[in-house]
Amino acid sequence: MTNLEEYYNKFNEEKRLNSRHGQIEYRISMDFIHQYLKPGDKIADIGAATGRYSIPLFEEGYDVTAVEPVQHNLGRLQKKCPQITAFKGNALKLKRLADNSFDAVIFFGPMYHLIGHEQKMQALLEAKRITKPGGHIFVAYIMNEYSVITYAFKERHILECMEEGRFDEDFQTVPKPDDLYDYVRLEEINRIKEEAGLLRKTILSPDGAANYMRPFLNQLTQEEFEQFIRYQRSVCERPELLGAGAHIVDILCKE
Questions:
Q1: 30 lies in a domain?
Q2: pTM for this one?
Q3: Phi–psi pair at 139, nearest 5 degrees
Q4: Number of independent structural domains in the chain
Q5: Distance CA 101, CA 30 (A)
Q6: Strand-pair category, 199-204 with 247-253
Q7: Which tens digit of pLDDT belongs to each residue from 82-109?
């Protein structure tokens, strides 16, 4: 069993996305996905987990193929929606998916767990390969400053991290080969996009400050919470806020 499989056998991704901070990420991400879809589009959800995105899109009538590396997650997805096309696979080698065959590719997991620039490039080029010309790729990343602020400072691991060489002099995280997550900054996201030869349509932070505010979000009334979602939707593309949130979604087009 890989580290990734062991982790997701214990981690409840559905619970995270159903939490209030997770709802913000999900609802805003879905809003942007729908902006680029057309009726009847073929969608590949790579790193589909338990189907949080792929199942609703399938139920809306899209032709969805879900690919997930963790058997536990895949089993839950298939149990919830037996009709969906889903199989076990790795974002680095999508051999079962043909060139130029999807109108949209959702890539909301692979970049979190692929360590280093080369693996990320290999995965994004695979996503590009299976995307039709004119199609869109939705790529999610987990951000460096979120890791530094929450784990290192808020949870008071900073001295331990410095002793172990977990950060460089600029507080960029330095991943080890067996780490589960690789945290990035905007310059790395831009580099990956440029080297892949993809056109950016927009880039956004779907959750913004939400992950820093979890206890406070839980105290809001539903009406107040809906206003926070409206707020985050209105500022999610502001360049001065992008790198500070927990996640980035880069919306790219294959020309």
A1: yes
A2: 0.95
A3: -110, 125
A4: 1
A5: 22
A6: antiparallel
A7: 999 999 999 999 999 999 999 999 999 9
